[in-house]
Amino acid sequence: MLSPDKIDVRDDVSEFEAISRNKSRVAISLSAVMIAMYFGFMSMFAFAKPLMGTILAPGLSLCILLGASVIVGSFLLCLVYVVWANRFYDPAVRRIIG
Amino acid sequence: MQAANNPLAVTFFFVFMALTLGITYWAARRTRTTDQFFAAGGEITAWQNGWALAGDFLSAAALLGIAGIITSNGFDGLIYSIGFLVGWPIISFLIVEPLRNLGKFTFADVVAYRLRQRPVRVAAAIGTLTVILLYLIAQMVATGSLIKLLFGMPYTASVIVVGTAMLIYVIFGGMLATTWVQVIKAVLLSLGGLVLALLVLVHFDMNPLRLFAAAADKYGERVLQPGSKVAGSGWDAISLGVGLMFGTAALPHILMRAFTVPDVKEARMSILYATGIIGSFHLLVFVIGFGAMVLVGPEAVIKAGGGGNMAAPLLALTVGGNGFFGFICAVAFATMLAVVAGLTLSGVATVCHDLWVNVVRNGDAPEREQLTVARIATVAIAVLAVSLGIVFEGQNVAFMAGLAFAVAAAANFPALLLSIVWKRFTTSAAVASILVGTFSSLLLICLSPTVQVDVLGRSLAAVSQEWWFVPMKNPALISMPLSFLVAIAVSLVTQEQGAESSFREMRRRIMFGAAGAVCPER
């Protein structure tokens, strides 16, 4: 994150680097979570079929629960990113442009 | 069957055609520049673009195909639904902002930004056109046989009607008309899906679990469990996942929509809306598929023909009567039109912007000439799509849609990502990676059971003895890492001063857009 005392410094280049690094960190972390979530699910589907077929309640198996969670989770991750970008990233970029 | 010449279906179809042609007439008067033709002048709002992205992406396979797989196999259909969604967050985190700020009309703008224009544009055009043609063939053949089934119209006539309608939308109305066709279609499709799912759930106390339990009572618990429908082996399923996730993030017609909105923020928001719409729709399809299993029955669906594709329409007939059946048939038709129009437009952008302007004309061609080339390319692609649709009648081309995703993942995604994040990435590496990604995917699928067994009809036992045999039906797990490896290896053995020195300028432009890219540097 940008430290508040640096914002007013006219050090455009280092501030650009800081925002850019921060942005990459958020984008890469969220992508890693997304990839882990999806391929975790697919690996279980591919290699742990009996476990995934466990019936948790009438009409609900583990694979249905996890599958629906991946769909909802994908949307939530997008939402987290958009909220972060709108609240923190965009204002920080605007501060540099002035 | 009564699908043939259902008068309500035909009425809905004419209403849709009249509406979309009216919009095309309106859009044609606002389509005078290339920016308007390819990007609707950048004046589409995030909300509209979100719906249009959903309209571009949700093919007839999403409603008819996946519902059919769920009706006959149960849970396995959800694997496709999930696969079609998980690429969207990746677009949002890694792709959309650089794309919007660096590009003009195509994703090749981004790859070629720091690199030598001509070789990169030619390679990107090969990758893009391969994806688009494969996808178009799959769509056209599905369209022809579905319209035959839904409206009783002969196959060749259906393909020609779809090809002509899409030609009119694109050639006169460009991106603006295409966007509105996609928005209308996506709204109709979501509405149809929602009503159909609700009409099913009414029978089960509005509780999906009661519906799934009823299916398990009738057809056994296996319908709620992973089956073997999706992929032959475990690794094959992972390979399917790689292709769907990274292929979605690199589909040319989807990426192109990033240029239709005014700025990065709107582009980002439109991906969020699209993800929400597509995700909700797939959850509805899961209910619809199980609804058809319990209320219509897999046997009746198979008997209706079309390889299980009639599950959703037959369910509509059962729970909503003839009128709703006609509505769902018309929605399925609108769906196909919107998808082929989007595909065609992105193919035209590649031919005109990448090949004509940046390769033939060296980056400088008058607006009028560009529009003329774009319109000639539209006719050419439409004629090609219709002819291929007719040539492939009755062939098993279902694999081509999946292959299009795999080629996008292997050819487009590595080059797109590396050009944004890696300073050392060079022209030779981009070209090599795109070509290796495209041709290795095509070769692998030709040597796999997908082509050898499903298309050529050879026996699995016989081909699996051959030394060249590839056991996986989905190539992306091999072809995408291969493409990355080639890109990295070639970059390391080549040097490109210009590409490295403009990396910093590119990063500034990704953050600030075209106007802020020339900020002072120390």
UniProtKB/TrEMBL annotation, chain A:
InterPro entries: DUF485, Inner_membrane_assoc. The keyword Transmembrane helix applies. It comes from the Bacteria. The keyword Transmembrane helix applies. Keywords: Membrane, Transmembrane, Transmembrane helix. It comes from Methylorubrum suomiense. The chain crosses the membrane at residues 26-47, 59-84. This is Inner membrane protein YjcH.
TrEMBL record, chain B:
This is Cation/acetate symporter ActP. The keyword Magnesium does not apply. The chain crosses the membrane at residues 6-28, 49-71, 77-96, 122-142, 154-176, 183-204, 237-259, 271-296, 324-352, 373-392, 398-422, 429-451, 476-494. It is a multi-pass membrane protein. Belongs to the sodium:solute symporter (SSF) (TC 2.A.21) family. Pfam families: SSF. It is found in: Cell membrane. Keywords: Cell membrane, Ion transport, Membrane, Sodium, Sodium transport, Symport, Transmembrane, Transmembrane helix, Transport.
